[in-house]
Amino acid sequence: MSEFRTVIKLQGSDMKISYNSVLLFMGSCFSENIGEKFTERRFNAMINPFGVLYNPVSVKQSIEILLNRSLFDGDMLFKHEGLWHSFYHHSRFSSPDKDEVVETINKSIVEGHEKLKIADFLFITFGSAWIFQDVEDERIVANCHKLPASRFRRFRLNVDEIVESYSQLMVALKEFNPDLNIVLTVSPVRHWKDGAHGNQLSKSVLLLAIDELVSRFSKVGYFPSYELVMDDLRDYRFYAEDMLHPGSLAVDYIWDRLSDMYFDAKAGEYVREMEKVIRAVSHKPFNRKGDEYRKFAKRESERLKEMIKRFPGVDLTEYYDFFMNIS
């Protein structure tokens, strides 16, 4: 027996990421896990301009706000427990200062609008088909911000609702940015509050909706992050301590598989070089002021100069300055 697990064999995608591609990530915390892999390697990427979002409706609302560059004002916020919040945003945007919240939100919208206009790839990760609806105005909220549960009605979307809603969105995105490639994925994070069966039903709705969207539209693909964790790795050693979120080994494995599926040859070469840089920056010398470490830093700064020539347009200034300040 040569294999001791069910390895998912992925075919390379026709949609290819290059080292200078522009990328936008939207959706669940898993978007942040993978998006951070790109930003750490100095890809031109933006992650969750509204913060972490879990349900397809809130993700769609956020993308539409970016498309239309719809800016916020103070009347769109509410105050709870001493903080100003937005129903469209994660709590990381919340603050005791109302003007600060509006400024931070609008800065992110403007940046997200400009990024989406030139993006080569939009990655959308759905976390859950369950949504919360404000009973006062029937609006779907991205975050309840610890308001009383009685304020909201909770229900699960069905496949047709997601497909029809996103079909309209796909058309709008293609008109806004005809060169955009869209990758849909389902978060492997399990929503255990719904129970094992409830979580599976929710994920199944998302998977079926994505499958239909991929069949309807060109330049729309699916990356099986959910299956890679649940069916390929399939072991609790690949989970974080809560046994619900993928651990760092699982995220690294998914990153490697995504790289294999989407990176062109130049991106693969660039990432291999960047991995060396990241390891060098993380290196802990015995003597930070010694000659050996200065020689090491000089070699790395020279290598970075060559990388800057080979991969024009990538900003490696921070890493270059790091080593120059040592040597």
Give a description of the structure.
- There is one protein chain.
- With 327 residues, the chain is of the alpha/beta class.
- It has 2 domains: 242 residues, Rossmann fold; 62 residues, no CATH class.
- It has 10 helices and 10 strands.
- A hairpin with a 5-residue loop joins β6 and β7.
- The longest helix has 22 residues.
Structure summary:
The protein has 10 helices and 10 strands.
List keywords for this structure.
single chain, 327 residues, alpha/beta, Rossmann fold, 2 domains, five-stranded parallel beta sheet, three-stranded antiparallel beta sheet, 10 helices, 10 strands, 48% helix, 13% strand, globular
Topology:
Layout: E1 22-27, H1 29-40, E2 44-47, H2 56-68, E3 78-80, E4 83-85, H3 98-118, E5 121-126, E6 130-134, E7 140-141, E8 152-156, H4 159-176, E9 181-186, H5 195-216, E10 220-222, H6 225-233, H7 248-262, H8 265-282, H9 291-310, H10 317-324
Helix pairs in contact: 2-3, 2-4, 4-5, 9-10
Q: Helices and strands: which structural class? A: alpha/beta
CATH uppermost class of the largest domain? Alpha Beta
Q: How many beta-strand elements?
A: 10
- Backbone shape: globular
The CATH homologous superfamily name of the largest domain equals SGNH hydrolase
Terminal-residue CA separation: 53 Å
How many domains, in number, for the residues?
Answer: 2
Mean pLDDT: 92
- The unreliable regions are none
Strand order of the largest sheet: 2-1-5-9-10
Measured on Cα atoms, how large is the radius of gyration?
22 Å
* N-to-C order of helices and strands: EHEHEEHEEEEHEHEHHHHH
Q: Give the percentage of residues in beta strands.
A: 5-15%
> Helical percent range?
40-55%
Tally of separate helices: 10
CATH T-level fold name of the largest domain? Rossmann fold
Largest sheet: 5 strands, parallel
CATH architecture of the largest domain: 3-Layer(aba) Sandwich
